Amino acid sequence: MGHLVTILGAGESGTGAALLAKAKGYDVFVSDYGIIADKYKSQLVEKGIEFEEGGHSKKKILESRLVIKSPGIPETAKIVKKIREAGIKIVDEIEFAFSYTKAKIIAITGTNGKTTTTLLTYHLLKEAGLNVGLAGNVGHSLAKQVIEDKYDYFVVEMSSFQLDGCYLLKPYISILLNITPDHMDRYEYKIENYVSSKFRIIKEAGQNDHFIYYADNELIADKLSRYISPVKRVPITLDDVSDQMVMKINDQIQIPQSETVLLGMHNAINMMSAIHAALIMGVSEADIRQGLKTFKNAPHRMEYVDTINGVRFINDSKATNVDAVKYALASFTEPLVWIAGGVDKGNDYSLIMDEVNAKVKALVCLGKDNSKLRDAFHNQIVNMLETDSIHQAVRSALEYAQTNDVVLLSPACASFDLFKNYEDRGEQFKQAVRELKNDFETKALEQ
Q1: Binding site per annotation, positions
Q2: pLDDT of 167-225, one tens digit each?
Q3: What angle do CA 395, 429, 319 make, to 5 degrees?
Q4: In the sheet that 303-308 helps form, which strands lie side by side, from edge to edge?
Q5: Known binding site for ATP: residues?
Q6: Same topology for domains 95-294 and 303-446, yes or no?
Q7: Domain ranges of the chain
Q8: How far apart are CA 207 and CA 258, in angstroms?
Q9: Which residue in 197, 202, 237 sits closest to 221, CA to CA?
Q10: DSSP states of 136-196 as a string?
Q11: Which residues contact 259 (CB under 8 A, 6 or more apart)?
Q12: CA 165, 167, 168, 174: dihedral to nearest 10 degrees?
């Protein structure tokens, strides 16, 4: 082909796009403003792909016919503005890969719950014997897998940033789990821009495609009331979940949540979405029931850690906004000791005040600046502690708790004040719990 394709950003998606472009005969140039990780650099070197790091060569980049941009690079970046001014098309890796695959795409987006639903959908299809791959925001490059293109289906987790770079993407099944305010800095602080980004998932959907969506979400319902599309609509609603937490699917299948490994109303939404997708793909009820029992979720999402003195410890470090915490709190009937805090992203804590009043007996504020969290709940919660130590947070939480209580790490905030990321926060929490349990077991043996 000979046309120059530039890849901006050499992470998982960027490197995958570079490898696919090279395999399809393009001249490929990779440019990363930061330092490229060794594992990706070695893949580029192996395929003879030219790259640069620590800056952008504007002259070369502006000679491109196409630019594939990492979703993490905002439109406000200087190099992106220059590319736009030059009239060069910019797409996402998912969009580029879609044009080279024969596989049907099951695409999943939403402010919260994407990873759980993506992994569960993939698990249900794979366990039922379908030839299916996993890709997207879960950390697997779709483009890299499309080089061999050996799968009949791909389950793809998609963020709004990835959707922003898609124009012709046409999933066979699209799932929209929810929309709540998030990443507002990337959308001019206009919620309608964020909603429009999410709805790009069905922009090209036709009458033979399917759209599974959470109908109880006001932003989704409002947009759909004015949205014209021939796609087959499959609404999910909590009206189909009984007080005994039994999920009703298509008025025929009834599955108690107690027969699954996922807790809470938010996971009922996730599961019903995945179940509907599996049914559309022809998976049997028996295989679905079995798959729901054997599923293992990604870590840091309502993850059971251990029990100490009859107190359960739950790691929900991925809950970095109030909406995610609301679902977490609603998952329990037991009294809670809540560990929260970090970098506040403009949280409105009034959204969870009722749940906190009903269930939280103590709050451990974990962060460098806990003032907003403290001010929001100091009238509601008598037992409150501030700390910047995860070990102190865990030990203090156990002191507040009694047998059959739950200690819940569900921060509602970003983690960058004390931790590298939410994964690091979750791992340190789990390690602190393990150390505390070891201390209790050691003392028990000494007595």
Answers
A1: 110-116
A2: 999 999 999 999 988 778 889 889 999 999 999 999 999 999 999 999 999 999 999 99
A3: 120
A4: 303-308, 311-315, 406-409, 336-340, 360-366, 383-387
A5: 110-116
A6: no
A7: 4-91, 95-294, 303-446
A8: 36
A9: 237
A10: ETTTB-HHHHHTT---SEEEEE--HHHHHT-SS---SEEEE----S--GGGGTT-HHHHHH
A11: 289, 292, 293
A12: 70
Tokens of 404: 């059959």
Query: What pLDDT does 2 receive?
Result: 60
The superfamily CATH assigns to domain 95-294 is: Mur-like, catalytic domain (3.40.1190.10)
Give the CATH superfamily of 4-91: NAD(P)-binding Rossmann-like Domain (3.40.50.720)
**Token pair listed for 318:** 């991925």
The architecture that CATH gives domain 303-446 is: Alpha-Beta Complex (3.90)
Q: Encoding tokens for residue 211?
A: 């759209």
Which residues lie closer than 8 Å to 81 by C-beta, 6 or more apart?
A: 75
Q: 334 has which bridge partners?
A: none
Q: Are strands 311-315 and 303-308 parallel, antiparallel or unpaired?
A: antiparallel
359 confidence band (pLDDT: 50, 70, 90):
very high
Rounded CA separation 304/389 (Å):
21
